[in-house]
Amino acid sequence: MAEPILEIRNLNKSFGALKATDNVSLDLRAGEIHALIGPNGAGKSTLIHQIAGSLRPGSGTIRFLGRDIGALGVPERTRLGLGRTFQISSLAPDYSALRNVMLAVQARQGTSFRFLKPVMADRSLREPALEALERVGLAERADVPAAELSHGERRQLEIAIALALGSKAFLLDEPMAGMGPEGSKALTTFLDGLRAEAPILLVEHDMDAVFALADRISVLVYGRIIATGTVDEIRHNPDVRQAYLGEEG
Amino acid sequence: MMGNPRESILNLVLVLALAAIPLVATGMGEPFYVTLATRMAILALAAVGLNFLLGLGGLVSFGHAAFFGIGGYVAGIAATHAFNNEPLLFGLPGTNQMIVIWLVAILLCGLAALAIGVISLRTSGVYFIMITLAFAQMIYYFAISWPAYGGEDGLSIYVRNGFPGVNTLNGLHFFYLCFGLLLAALAVFSVLRNSRFGAALEASRQNQQRLAAVGIAPFRVKLVAFAISGMITGLAGALFADLNRFVSPSMLSWHMSGELIVLIILGGTGRLFGPVAGAMVYVLFEFYLGGITERWQFFLGLILLGVVLFARGGVVGLIAGKARHG
Hints:
The structure holds two protein chains of two kinds.
Chain A: E1 6-15, E2 18-28, E3 33-37, H1 44-52, E4 59-64, E5 67-68, H2 74-80, E6 82-85, H3 97-109, H4 123-135, H5 151-164, E7 169-173, H6 181-194, E8 200-203, H7 207-213, E9 216-221, E10 224-229, H8 231-236, H9 238-248
Parallel strand pairs in A: 3-8, 3-9, 6-7, 7-8
Antiparallel strand pairs in A: 1-2, 1-4, 4-5, 9-10
Chain B: H1 5-27, H2 31-56, H3 65-84, E1 87-89, E2 92-93, H4 98-120, H5 126-144, E3 155-156, H6 171-194, H7 196-206, H8 208-213, H9 218-244, E4 246-247, H10 254-267, H11 274-292, H12 296-310, H13 314-320
Antiparallel strand pairs in B: 1-2, 3-4
């Protein structure tokens, strides 16, 4: 089997006495959606932060596309192709949806130290940005400042940005959070198609979406992965039922 | 593109008003007002530099007097050496040519800004404010304790430096020289703001986490902005020394840094013509209120309080409404 796109080995992270990440190993293979589930406080976001580079792990390795990225910062990891969305939308609030995506296109082109050409007239920025907005169904809201978008629209915009970056793997931190049932359904369909483009590590509380989408599921409890498997395996795993799904009823 | 018609009209009015003051004053035989208008133009230029960092990048430098003063001392020191016919450095002579002085001032301020920026941009918020202040105060005390160039007493420029084809001793001519540089700086500001670099800089103000997450390291963007900002303010300092024919450590003091921040807040933070509106209002207050009472800064404080509480966008925001970012 081919080497995984993203390979996490024996990752540890402690905050004082609390082990937020406890010897976590995890793979993301080409073409798959790997869901990461677990109760609140299980350390899912902490893990995403370490993969994205905004938090240094205590120990362990993170390999992306065959390369150890443990020493790299957030911008470098993004440029290698790790596209990440935030649990709480993180956008440039004064900028329109379009300009938010244009910033990603500009970053992807690697040309932020250009001082003359006006960006708003730059078709090499506008067109890919509009295309990304169209894909997530936000094209008609392109000129609205991010601060004025609805919660769900901001979630979509985050994904449009990750698309525009040409990401080779997506880290999606609760993309469905706060979306209405219709929005979740549309996003589920969208992510279903997206996995062919690049694999997705999906942190999500919406179990319907997880069971509909995931090729594999890892269950994180108190910083440890207690099980990894297919949807069926996880559904019937007694530990998981006790630790997690049981509480969900 | 994203033009705001009211803002464009306001900008035009400001430009025409500033350009007209010296003409009218000369016609009325009141050369003092020419000096006043020149002061407006130079302070506006200095504030355009700071506005680049503060308005676009959201970085409150409380140490821009450092660049203003370095620019001033470049003009003063070059002129002194030229006047006394003494070699300056490495056998190079002084000069009384403004173009050379400006270029040296811009270059030195760019280097100084890089050095200060590399350290201070590792901090943010209050720490950034304090560390920029600390750097400027270091240079201030250095100037005070450097007897070769006047120390505490400052340094006089006996004859205003020259510019080819312009009689700089004529107040009106000198004004239009400064005014032309102000317009050029505004053009630079506008072009940079609309460029890719400007987009990255404005994004770093709005959300650094986002900027990093699209793969642009905020530090380098801010450092380059800091250098450009210092260079523009340094150029203004050189002009200011030539206007007063005098440079002293007060140009380097924290009062000066504060004055530049006040100008920008009064005029409209991040707005293209905010520094121009701010400088005009400020110099008018200074002159008229200063004529009525020695405590004019108390009233300026009240006005500033009013602006911060009720008109966050300053003069430009009050008249032209909120900024749109496209």
